User: Fold this.
Amino acid sequence: MSRARPGDLRAITADGVFFSAMVGMGETYVPAFALAMGLGAVTSGLIATVPMLAGAVFQLVTPRAVRWLRSYRRWVVLCAGLQALSFVPLILGALGGRIGLGSLAVAAVAYWSFGMATSPAWNAWVTSLVPSEERARFFAHRTRAAQIALLTAMLGGGLSLEWGDQRGTPLLVFGALFALAMLARLVSATCLGRQSEAPGLASAHHALSPRGVLGSLRRSGSGRVLVYLLAMQATVNVASPYFTPYMFGPLALSYAEFMSLTAAALAARIAVMPWLGHVAQRRGTRFLLGWGAVGIVPLPLLWLVSHHFAYLLALQCFAGTAWAALEFATLLSFFEGIPEHERTSVLAVFNLANAAAVALGALCGGRILLALEGSPEAYAVLFAVSVAGRLGALGLLRGARAARGGAEMQLRTLAVRPSAGAVERPILATVDGAEHSGEAPGRETAAS
Assistant:
C-alpha cells in the first residue's frame, strides 16, 4: 500500500487555503468594484460571467501545454503565477481612482483564463499524489481548511470595505484587498511548486477527442443531466449576475450587509454539505436532485417579497442549502458514471459548455436590463424571466440518471456568488468509484 509524502499533503492543503483566500478577498468583490468605479449594473453583471467563457476556452490548451512542458507542475505553477498578476490592473485602477472597461475586462479574462487552465492538469496531478485509500479523509480535511479561509477572507474584505466606505476611501480598500489576493495566489503558486511529480507522469497524459467525450457521455447516461445543467445555468444567469447591482442599487445595502448576505448563502452551503453526502447514501441522489431543483425555482421572486434584512438573511440561508443539494446531486450524477481516466477530459468540456450557458444567460439579462434602463422594475422582470426558465428546465430532469454513492465527493470553490453562495467543481479524485477504475495513477485525460 503506497503512502503519500507528508510534504506533498501539507503543500496541497496550503495551496487550497491560499487559493480560497484569494477568491474571498479578490474575485468576490470584483463586481462591487465595477459598481464603485461607476461602470454600471450591466458591466458589473457581465464581468462576473462572460470572462469565464474565455477561461473555459483557454483551458483547452492544457493537454498541449503539459506535453510541451513535460510536466503538470510547471504548467500549473506558471498559470497560478499569471493568475496572480491579473490583479495588477485592478490594484492600479483602485489606487488611481480610475479604470477603463477594457482594462477591467482584460484583468477578468486573464484571471479566469489562467485559473481555469490549471484545473485539468491539477486534477490529474493531485490524483497521482494522494493514494486512493487516503483521499476521502485527506480531501475532507483540505476542504474544511479551504472553506474556513474563504469565509474568513470574505468577511474580512466586507468589513474592511465598510470601514473604508465610512471614511470615504473605499477604492483604497479595494486596492489593498486585490493586493492581498494577489499575494495569496503567489503563495499558493509557491505551495504548488513544492509538490512532487513522478518522472514521466505527464507523458501518460492524453486527450479524448470531442467524439470520445460524446461517447463517454452516452455510455455513462449523463447526457440528460448535462442538458438540464446547461438549461438551468442559462436561465439562472438571466438574473444571477445582477444580484450584486440589485443589492447596491434598489436595496441600497452597505458593504457589510452585502457581505453578510453573501456569506450567509456560502455558510449554509458549507454547513449542509456533510449532511448531503449521508442523505445521498441513505435516500439516493434523486431525493436531493428533486429538492434542490424545485427549491431554487422561486428564489429570485422571493427577493421581491420583503426588503427586511432579517428576511433576506433567512432567504439566503435557504438558497444556500437548495443550491448545495442541487449542485452536489447533479455534479455527482454527471461524473460518477464516467470512468476515472476520462473524467478530466469530460470536466474540460463540461466547463466550456457550462461557461457558454452562463454567458448566454448573462447577456440576455443584460439586454433586458439595458432595455428597461436599469429601473427597479427591470430587476423584477429579470427575476420573473429567470423563475419561468427554471420552472421550464425541471421537465428535463425526467428520466435523468441518479448517482449511487456520494458521501466522499468534495467540491472546490472557484468563485463566490451572492445569489447561490458559490461556483464549485468536483475534486475528481473524490468522486465515488474513482479508486475502483483500475487505471494506473497519473493516466488522466484532458480535452484537446
